[in-house]
Structures are given as C-alpha cells and as structure tokens.
C-alpha cells in the first residue's frame, strides 16, 4: 500500500510539471530562474510539431475553388518587395491591438528587431521555436545580439509571397490573432518592447516577432 501511494504521488508530480511546463512554453514567458529554465527544457522535449504552434497558410487542393484575385499574380520576389514595410506594419498592428484593449503599447527596439530578422532567416531552415542547431530561440539574444531580459516571447509566421506588403501583413497578423497562444504573446502585459523581422526565400515570406522585458 505504501509503494502504491508513492507511485501515485510521483505520477501527480509529473502531471503537474507537464501542465506548468507547457503553460510556460505556450505563453513564451521565460523568467530567468533555474526552475523556469529546467521546466522549459523538460517541456520542450515533449512539444508538438511546429505546424500546430505557428500560423501557416493552409494548403489548398487544386479542385477547390479559390479567389482568383489572390492567385492572379505571379509569386513576387524580394527584389521588388519592401520587407521593412511589412515589419513596421505588423508592429503597428500589434500596438493597435494593445491600445484597443487598454494595454500599454510596446516600443520598437532595434536590438530585438535585429534578433527577429535573424530568427526569420533561421525559420527558412527550420520553421520551429527551436533554432537550426537545436538550441532554444532566445539564445539569439545572448550570442548574436546583446539583450538582457527578464522575460521574452516569440511568434513565427510564414506564407507564400503572392500579394503586396499590406495584404501579407494583414494575412499573417490575422493568423496570429486566430491562434490563442500567439494572441496571448502579443497582448502579454509583461512585455514593453518588441522587434519584428521579415525574410524571403524561394517565394516564401518568413516573419518573426520577438517581445521583451529588459532588465533595466
């Protein structure tokens, strides 16, 4: 009987840790504590595929009707595309959303923008909240740029580059709005700064949002 109680107690501890770990990962809120980092690493090993976590353009079967206006143009190239405009439009939409909810807006941060551009580039290799070399996404804030933080969050998005900058910004932002985890990150009251990065490769637009609460 004593062994049974011990086993039951261990199972409850594991389930509690899993719940807390997934909550922290889904909300992308990583506080600088040994407990938080350990729990994050444990939950990362059990995370679902990236396609269930990030907004992607749904596949369309050829026999299904589609809007002709959307597919009437050839795939655009980065040569005639203003990626910085997409970045600024998305950040503006984030702040419009926060203002509509009575929340403090986030300031544009050039260091976070640089990190977001790096992460957008990396997602062309591995579209995941894990970097191509297997490390967690926020190592970019310590290794490639210098940003000391108390909390950070990341949203990723991708779409075929078929329409103009305004259309693509709207489409990606709506995808984040429709995903509870990504929405929660955009309206998280801990964050005071943000950077948005965009990258194009082989006709695909990749966008990363990185939010931060600096140490000072």
Automatic annotation (TrEMBL):
Pfam families: CAP. The keyword Membrane applies. The chain crosses the membrane at residues 7-24. Residues 56-66 have a biased composition (Acidic residues). Keywords: Membrane, Transmembrane, Transmembrane helix. Residues 91-207 form the SCP domain. Residues 45-69 are annotated as: Disordered. This is CAP domain-containing protein. It comes from Atopococcus tabaci.
